[in-house]
Amino acid sequence: MTQITRRSLLIAGTATAGALLVPAATATATAAPAASGNRITIGSGETYELTATTRVSRLTIAEGGRIVAPDGHSLTLTVDGVETGQLLTETGGTATLVQPGTYRGDVVLTVTARNDVTYQTLTFPFRQALYVDGDGVVRDRSVLAAVVGGRLTDSYARNVSITSTGECFDGVYVRDGSYTLHRPTISLTGNGRSDFAGYGAAVVGAGASARLVLDGARITNKGVVRTAVIADDGADVIVKNSFIRCRDGVLPADYRATVETPYMQSVPWMLGLDGNVRATNLIGKDSTATYLGSTVFSETWGALSVEGGSGLKLTAVNSHVGNTGQYGYGTYAIGDAVVRVLGCRFDVGSYATIIAGPAAVVHYGDSTPAAVAALNTELGLGLSDAELADLPARNTVVNSGHFGYMFFGAGTLTLDGGTVVNSERATFLNKGQQTAITVDGSKGARLDPRDGVILQMIELDDPGPVNVDGKMMNVGVYTEPTGDPAKDASFDVTAAHTADSAATFSSIALKGDFYNGMRKGKNMVLTFEDSTVEGVISASRTRHRVSTIDSSAFYELGIVTNTVRPAVNNGVVVRLNSGSAWTVTGTSYLTALTVAADAAVKAPSGRSLVMTVNGTETALTAGKTYTGAITLTVA
After folding, report:
1. Where are the alpha helices (DSSP H) in 358-451?
2. What is the CA radius of gyration of the chain?
3. Is 374 helix (H, G, I), strand (E, B) or coil?
4. CB 3.0-4.6 Å disulfide test: which of 48, 56, 198, 360 passes with 333?
5. How far does Cα 152 stand from its chain's mean position?
6. pLDDT at 308
């Protein structure tokens, strides 16, 4: 049992547990003595500097009046235990100020030491209900008046409630300490400012010595970048048996969309997405975030995000993840992040995962006892034998309203176990990236794209940001290229290159098409092991549904039609290894074809197949390799 220190006893209990100090008036304002039932009134043009935490029954601030804390401190207003009234002073800024108005009830003005968090070029003055370090809860950095009910100690909080209707107020911030939140209820309504720093998040774990555990949490946020869970700077965050939901807010009228991360408050539309809040973020160096038996939903943008850094590990086990809106992703993988999804259900608007490279590793599979036990050891999850036994073995099911997986950068993707991917459009959308896709169907994995396309390769259709007055703004426009691509004589379309798009399918029955619509030198290299495939595999010419795409038509990105045609710089290399068979359903243009001795290429029943190589009709014989301009025609 956790030892309760004297300091812990002082902070245990309800919002009134913090010793509320009564200051004298220190500025030109009309203020009654700050005793119980008294009032503070601040007139227009007046600034009232409050030097210590104060409780009153009414606070009135006229237009043009200000109430502030001394230098090096922050001021937070709570009314009846709810943080409120505080707004950013400007779009893109970091400072907040209590707004003019009259506040009645149990009004507490808490003065805390500043918690300055620097992210790149900006410093954010964090305010939080609970600040925890290696020694436990730090009272002079905690707004204890915003912690209602339950019990606090230096090692855990149980059944507490934290509510905010102001801006940029955090629920719990753990810096290099170990802390457990048992069944907390956190509700933050109103905009945050940065989900790269965690400014305005429900909970933040930061620092290489930080270990933050949420067990049975319920977090419901609504607001621009009002993120639920942040793991940063080497922290280890574990979320168990919890419910997390974040809904979009309203962007400031003068906000301009940018990719400059200190100022970013909405998703870059060039990903084919919209929205202004993601439920979680994993950043920094060697940070880890693990979600066990939990529900994590964002309205749009993304549910489980990895955003920059190195050595990051994101894991979801037996969890329900997705988007409540029409667009959004389940997970995002960038850098050298490792993302693992075991035994989960994903209901996503746009993509199960966006793989943004350059060395991301993503795995979707089953939550077998052996796999979960291995993660428990690797990640130091601390799951007991009883907890491990209570986690049922499940397969992963993805239901996507658009694509299955989108490669926006290089990466490795593995699907195995009983993973099922249902998508309205292509299972794999590769925007000109180096890939290593492996699908192992030996335990029942299935791919079911409703448009009949399993793998679609296209040129990167991200128009990129535009430099506007020295800032990178999201105002680019994608324009469909015209004319045929020029042949690159130095690029070998018959070979497999390291930078190609490679995919291997084993022990699986596939029904669908594969298209390489690249204009520049990149081959589609497909390997089939003990598998069957029924469909078209071909080089193609792609066309978007509209010829120009700006932010108003973000949803058109990635959506193309294919016209099969001989390869130019977009080779198609097919390897039918032992036990595999390809049923060709329509004209297919390849550049290399290998057929194992016990493999087959055939036409559908009742039809015939003709192959030409460099214009010459050629018998298709098992055990041989063909290279050149290969055309397979079904008659």
Report:
1. 369-379, 385-390
2. 28
3. helix
4. 360
5. 31
6. 81
H or E segment at 477?
A: none
Q: 37-46, 272-281, 443-452: which range is least confident on average? A: 37-46
Q: How many angstroms separate the CA atoms of 489 and 470, rounded? A: 39
d(Cα 554, Cα 275) in Å, to the nearest integer? 11
CB atoms within 10 A of CB 622: 12
Q: Which residue from 196, 309, 204, 310 is spatially nearest to 262, judged by alpha carbons?
A: 196
- What pLDDT shows up at residue 37? 54
Tokens of 46: 């007046």
DSSP symbols for 60-74: EE-TT-EEEPPTTEE
Average pLDDT score over residue span 455-484:
96
Contact 280, 332 (CB under 8 A): no
Contact 43, 65 (CB under 8 A): yes
Listed in sequence order, the residues at least 6 apart from 584 whose beta carbon sits closer than 8 Å to its beta carbon are 536, 537, 601, 602, 603, 604, 609, 632, 634
Report CA torsion sign: 71, 72, 77, 80: negative
Query: Chain-centre distance of CA 253, in angstroms?
Result: 25
DSSP letter, residue 310: B
Examine the pLDDT at 24 and tell me if it is beyond 60. Answer: no
Average pLDDT value for residue range 315-321: 98
The token pair that represents 546 in the structure block: 């509209």
Tell me the residue type at 12: A
Whether 352 shows a pLDDT value over 70: the answer reads yes
What element of type H or E holds 295?
A: strand 295-298
pLDDT at 522 over 90: yes
76 touches 126 (CB < 8 A): no
- List pLDDT tens digits, range 46-73: 999 999 999 999 999 999 999 999 999 9
**632 with 626: CB under 8 angstroms?**
no
Amino acid at 260: E
The per-residue pLDDT for 19 is 34
Give me the residue spans of the domains in the chain: 455-634
Q: How many residues does the chain have?
A: 635
Closest CA to 336 of 236, 412, 439: 412
With 0.70 as the threshold, say if the pTM is over it: yes
Cα separations in angstroms, 175 against 209, 230, 428, 444, 622: 8, 12, 39, 44, 63
Cα 60 to Cα 56, 76, 568, distances in angstroms? 11, 15, 73
**How confident is the model over 335-341, as a mean pLDDT?**
97
Burial of 523 (0-12, 13-18, 19+ CB in 10 A): buried
Question: pLDDT confidence of 8, banded at 50, 70, 90?
Answer: very low
Does residue 223 surpass a pLDDT of 80?
yes
pLDDT at 209 exceeding the cut of 50? yes
Instruction: Give how far the C-alpha of residue 401 lies from the chain's centroid of Cα atoms, to the nearest Å.
Output: 17
